[in-house]
Amino acid sequence: MESSINKLEIIFENYELLVINKPAGLVVHEGSGPAVTTLVDLLAHHLPKSPLKTEHYGLVHRLDKDTSGIVLVAKTKDNFTYLRTLFRQREIHKEYLVLVHGHLTPKRGIIKIPLSRDLVKRTQVVPRASGKISETGYEVIGYYRGFTYLRAQPTTGRTHQIRVHFSSLGYPVVGDKTYGKPDSLARQFLHSHKISFVDLLGKRQTFIAPLPDDLTQFLDDLSR
């Protein structure tokens, strides 16, 4: 069943952690645009007694509005601090499923292109030699006519990193209206599929969000 942007899809929950499968179209928190229901609004309803109300109810990272998949939410202050430290130290391993235009080769690689905010369009990111170090590993899953389906593993967490990295190489993400070109797909083909980390008790935790229906259908249509 396709996720609703008005209801949390919970992958896992215990006393210290909440793992959400965010649908495309859901904004993580308020910006400068018109008022809409956000992920933070849904978390406020689900966690009304959260000790992390002033920290966006425990959100430790974010996804773009039109990117779907896993989001981690801390439910205790200790876990909030711990998870933020793991992200900062690059000890949370993330894997995205991505479809890009073109026939990307080689089948495995690491993209190392520094990124910074565009000096004019401040909501956008551009490659710049003086920018922040940004690194994305990738592995091709398969090829379609005119497209490449792949796994991307960002080791840094820059804004729009995966989208800008592939676009700058000439392989824009399908459906990306900002860094790509017009497509028949209504949103960008970018899905946070898997997250893995060692929790506060020293146990390895791995969470997976399956590819949503709209992206699965798009791949099926390409196969016909």
Sequence-ordered SSE layout with sheet pairings:
Elements: E1 10-13, E2 17-22, H1 39-46, E3 68-74, H2 77-88, E4 93-101, E5 108-112, E6 115-117, E7 125-127, E8 135-144, E9 147-154, H3 161-168, E10 190-198, E11 204-208, H4 213-223
Parallel strand pairs: 3-10
Antiparallel strand pairs: 1-2, 2-3, 4-9, 4-10, 5-8, 6-7, 8-9, 10-11
What does this structure look like?
- The protein is of the alpha+beta class and 224 residues long.
- The chain has helices at 39-46, 77-88, 161-168, 213-223, and strands spanning 10-13, 17-22, 68-74, 93-101, 108-112, 115-117, 125-127, 135-144, 147-154, 190-198, 204-208.
- It has one domain (10-223): 2-Layer Sandwich (Pseudouridine synthase), CATH 3.30.2350.10.
- It has four helices and eleven strands, in the order ββαβαββββββαββα.
- The longest helix is centred in the middle third of the chain and has 12 residues, at 77-88.
Descriptive tags:
single chain; 224 residues; alpha+beta; Pseudouridine synthase; 9-stranded mixed sheet; two-stranded antiparallel ribbon; 4 helices; 31% strand; globular
Strand content: 25-35%
The percent range for helix content is 10-25%
Our measurement of the CA-to-CA distance between the termini, rounded to an integer number of angstroms, reads 23 Å
CATH topology, by name, is: Pseudouridine synthase
Q: Specify the structural class.
A: alpha+beta
Give a short account of the largest sheet: 9 strands, mixed
Fourth CATH level, the homologous superfamily: Pseudouridine synthase
CATH architecture: 2-Layer Sandwich
Count every beta strand, where a strand is a DSSP E run of 2 or more residues: 11
Query: Which term fits the overall shape?
Result: globular
